[in-house]
Amino acid sequence: MTEKVALIGSGNWGSAVAKIIGRNVSKFDHFDNEVKMWVFEEKVNGQNLTDIINTKHENIKYLPGIQLPENVVACPDLIKTCEDATMLVFVVPHQFVTSICKQLKGRIPANCKAISLIKGIDVNDDGFRLITDMIQDSLGIRSCVLSGANIANEVAEEKFCETTIGYRNRADGELFRDIFHTPFFRVNIVEDVVGVELCGALKNIVAIGGGLVDGLKLGDNTKAAIIRIGLYEMRKFSKMFYADVKDETFFESCGVADLITTCAGGRNRKVAEAHVTTGKSFDQLEQEMLNGQKLQGTSTAQDMYNILSKKDLCHEFPLMTTIYRICYENLPPIRIVEDI
Ligand SMILES: NC(=O)C1=CN([C@@H]2O[C@H](COP(=O)(O)OP(=O)(O)OC[C@H]3O[C@@H](n4cnc5c(N)ncnc54)[C@H](O)[C@@H]3O)[C@@H](O)[C@H]2O)C=CC1
Ligand SMILES: O=C(CO)COP(=O)(O)O
């Protein structure tokens, strides 16, 4: 059977993986050569972003300077992008997934499989859900997850790194590996969707901590301490809510490696550092510094705080709780080391 891949999302990471997927589907007979990519339409320099991508083969707003393969076709219509796909790649900021799933419900082929590259969780009145569970529950399809130490610009420049795919069904994991794996983007597949996904979501909160430490000029030892405590709280939270999360997963690219790279070079780190040096709010800095790209760490800190405070567990997660308070309750940044 020929598989047809559709990409839902075309931001910084979405565009970087479009380059890999476009090339990889051409290498195998079991994939259709065309990859449709849904673009949240906007005007850039007076032109539709989709038209720019389809003529210049470059996403000049979210991944400038990187050539995309010509078999990646930008499409502003979500349903048309996905209606004939058998493999859906979800790669949008996590706050947009609910509305996307609502629009896709009942409009995709029954034999579809999905993978989420999204780092975040979905909080509701009853607690929280993984993004893969949200996709599975709302669309009635199986979903894998991909997460790793993968700063998009470096991947797009083909600098070597690793990534982790978490699967429930091994055949799905192997199929998705085919569209992502390259010599410079090495994929390892593991049977632990929950562990891989929670690592990706929670490390963004720790990255805010890393940026605060940089803004405070506290040095490398302090940064290492934040990373260690962050990893400890990530594992504790994951196991508290999902007992079968595997310890080994924290040693994969999605675990310790992503924590290190994101605390060194990610957007959450950069904006948190600027929060200390300028005193401006995270929302304002996101607007001023990221040119339309989105922060995931602040809202995930808020999501986690909501979960913990409802269960009276904040005292068991002092780092995550303090980071939330610095982001949302005007706590002075220095409390990152005083309160943990
Ligand atoms: N950028 C990176 O280095 C990496 C990002 N990720 C994760 O991938 C996910 C997607 O991130 P990026 O591709 O970097 O996105 P991004 O941060 O570049 O976000 C901007 C994207 O959101 C779209 N958008 C804006 N408003 C929207 C709306 N109302 N509905 C739908 N889309 C809208 C924009 O059109 C644009 O495509 C996130 O969860 C992120 O944590 C994971 C690994 C690396
Ligand atoms: O997830 C990432 C790298 O793996 C990117 O992190 P930021 O969103 O902080 O840039």
TrEMBL record:
Keyword flag Protein transport: no
Domain of life: Eukaryota
Associated pathway: Phospholipid metabolism; alpha-glycerophosphate cycle
Sorted UniProt keywords: Cytoplasm, NAD, Oxidoreductase
Matches recorded under InterPro entries: 6-PGluconate_DH-like_C_sf, 6PGD_dom2, G3P_DH_NAD-dep, G3P_DH_NAD-dep_C, G3P_DH_NAD-dep_euk, G3P_DH_NAD-dep_N, NAD(P)-bd_dom_sf
Name recorded for this polypeptide: Glycerol-3-phosphate dehydrogenase [NAD(+)]
One Gene Ontology cellular component: nucleus
First-level EC class: oxidoreductase
Catalytic reactions of this protein: sn-glycerol 3-phosphate + NAD(+) = dihydroxyacetone phosphate + NADH + H(+)
GO biological process: carbohydrate metabolic process; glycerol-3-phosphate catabolic process
Ranges for domain Glycerol-3-phosphate dehydrogenase NAD-dependent C-terminal: 192-337
Domain Glycerol-3-phosphate dehydrogenase NAD-dependent N-terminal: 4-170
One Gene Ontology term of the molecular function aspect: glycerol-3-phosphate dehydrogenase (NAD+) activity
Residues at the catalytic site: 203 (proton acceptor)
UniProt keyword Oxidoreductase present: yes
Chain residues that bind substrate: 119, 267-268
Predominant cellular place of this UniProt entry's protein: cytoplasm
NCBIfam families linked to this entry: glycerol3P_DH
